[in-house]
């Protein structure tokens, strides 16, 4: 068959498929050029311009030619999970995800001055202070050092919401996400500049409009801190700190400074805005807890959860658990309002300072009840109830608030959040 005939056949067999998301002309041209089909490119261009919201799905997909390859893959129009944005944050749809890795575009966001636009060719990181020699590192320089990859979660210390019964996991604690991160160990760079052995703290400073700054103990730098430039196999996305961010596995998200531009090594904390007036919490006795970096053990049942409705019979209860203290060793689930607890199955591999999936098979008999989960980590720490936290801290919320989340299953199978349990 000649090329001209092939083109005519393609013209008659073009699928009337209209993506539900916008596709750039560059992407369309790239896919068509790869096939050498100019007419396909033009026809799809017209389809894109129509901007119809739904696919025209044929009864028999084998009778129509499909869409040609493109520059970037897209989700099915039937699968469109999204983050829940506000002015300074957006929450991960935990209830819509599978496994423990969060797609990069669904990783939660939290910023204090918007997302800056940074040219990677002009990027520099300065390390100075109590060092033998102050140094500047470009992105190219950082990528020349030995790389390291690890999987861990990041969680905002303000990751708690309650008050209404119609809240989903995304709304309750969607400020946690998990990725595979790649970069250079911070200890490698500290050895490169000759960090003073008497130094005990370092300042991390961001290149955003808020000029985010946090004091970090040197011990964390030598334990597992990283400067990362890649997430889930690709370069960091702008909202995640492109081109380079600080990664402190198991610690509160605010300390993991994005768009990092400067590190100053010293022998005392810097007492910045974000660790004095902000990111401190009330505790019993009218006192304030400061430098509470570690994220304690937590879990949440993501299925079943609001706004789902279940049917009488067998239900697989599913969720995730995590801790900044190391590994999750056990998750217990109660299906009778907390009177009895059963051990859930943990999905291997169980990684340190990482989301761990759990599941428990449960037969729902159609009666109204409350289901809940609690996490236990390798240090023996038990996730507390809401009332236990309130009693211990004399506060009903705030930073590092990690209570057990309870769901009420109504007789009609609808699921609702239970507050203050």
TrEMBL record:
This protein's cofactor list reads: Mo-molybdopterin
Record keywords, A-Z: Metal-binding, Molybdenum, Oxidoreductase
Concerning InterPro entries, the annotation shows: Ig_E-set, MoCF_OxRdtse_dimer, Mopterin_OxRdtase_euk, OxRdtase_Mopterin-bd_dom, OxRdtase_Mopterin-bd_sf, Sulfite_DH_SoxC
Keyword Oxidoreductase among record annotations: yes
According to its UniProt entry, one GO biological process term is: sulfur compound metabolic process
Where in the numbering of this chain does the Moybdenum cofactor oxidoreductase dimerisation domain appear?
Answer: 295-385
Give every Oxidoreductase molybdopterin-binding domain span.
Answer: 112-271
| GO MF annotations in UniProt | heme binding; molybdenum ion binding; molybdopterin cofactor binding; sulfite oxidase activity
What PANTHER family would the database entry show? SULFITE OXIDASE, MITOCHONDRIAL (PTHR19372:SF7), SULFITE REDUCTASE (PTHR19372)
Instruction: From the Swiss-Prot or TrEMBL record, give the protein name.
Output: Sulfane dehydrogenase subunit SoxC
This chain's source organism reads: Olivibacter domesticus
- Record lineage: Bacteria, Pseudomonadati, Bacteroidota, Sphingobacteriia, Sphingobacteriales
């Amino acid at each position: 068959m000649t090329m001209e005939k092939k083109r005519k056949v393609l013209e008659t067999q073009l699928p009337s498929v209209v993506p539900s998301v916008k596709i750039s002309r560059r992407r369309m041209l790239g896919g068509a050029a790869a096939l050498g089909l100019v007419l396909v490119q033009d026809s799809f261009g017209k389809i894109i311009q129509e901007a119809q919201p739904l696919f025209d799905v044929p009864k028999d997909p084998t009778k129509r030619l499909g869409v040609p390859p493109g520059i970037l893959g897209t989700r099915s129009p039937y699968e469109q999970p999204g983050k829940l944005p506000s002015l300074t944050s957006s929450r991960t749809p935990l209830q819509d995800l599978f496994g423990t890795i969060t797609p990069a575009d669904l990783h939660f966001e939290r910023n204090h001055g918007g997302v800056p636009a940074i040219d990677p060719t002009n990027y520099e990181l300065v390390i100075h202070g109590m060092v033998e020699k102050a140094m500047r590192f470009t992105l190219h320089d950082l990528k020349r050092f030995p790389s390291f990859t690890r999987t861990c979660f990041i969680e905002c210390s303000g990751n708690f919401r309650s008050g209404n019964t119609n809240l989903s996991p995304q709304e309750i604690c969607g400020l946690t996400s998990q990725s595979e991160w790649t970069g250079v160990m911070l200890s490698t760079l500290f050895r490169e500049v000759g960090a003073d052995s008497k130094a005990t703290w370092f300042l991390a400073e961001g290149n955003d409009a808020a000029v985010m700054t946090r004091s970090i103990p040197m011990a964390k730098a030598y334990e597992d801190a990283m400067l990362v430039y890649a997430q889930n196999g690709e370069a960091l996305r702008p909202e995640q700190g492109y081109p380079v961010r600080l990664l402190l596995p198991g610690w509160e998200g605010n300390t993991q400074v994005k768009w990092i531009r400067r590190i100053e090594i010293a022998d005392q904390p810097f007492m910045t805005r974000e660790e004095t007036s902000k990111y401190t919490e009330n505790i019993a006795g009218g006192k304030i807890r400061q430098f509470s970096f570690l994220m304690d053990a937590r879990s949440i049942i993501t299925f079943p959860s609001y706004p789902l409705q279940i049917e009488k019979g067998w239900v697989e209860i599913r969720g995730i658990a995590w801790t900044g203290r190391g590994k999750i060793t056990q998750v217990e689930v109660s299906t009778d309002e907390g009177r009895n607890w059963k051990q859930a199955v943990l999905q291997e591999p169980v990684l340190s300072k990482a989301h761990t999936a759990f599941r428990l098979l449960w037969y729902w008999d159609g009666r109204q009840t409350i289901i809940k989960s609690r996490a236990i980590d390798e240090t023996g720490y038990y996730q507390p109830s809401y009332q236990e936290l309130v009693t211990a801290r004399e506060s009903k919320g705030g930073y590092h608030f990690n209570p057990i989340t309870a769901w009420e299953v109504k007789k009609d199978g609808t699921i609702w959040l239970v507050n203050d349990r």
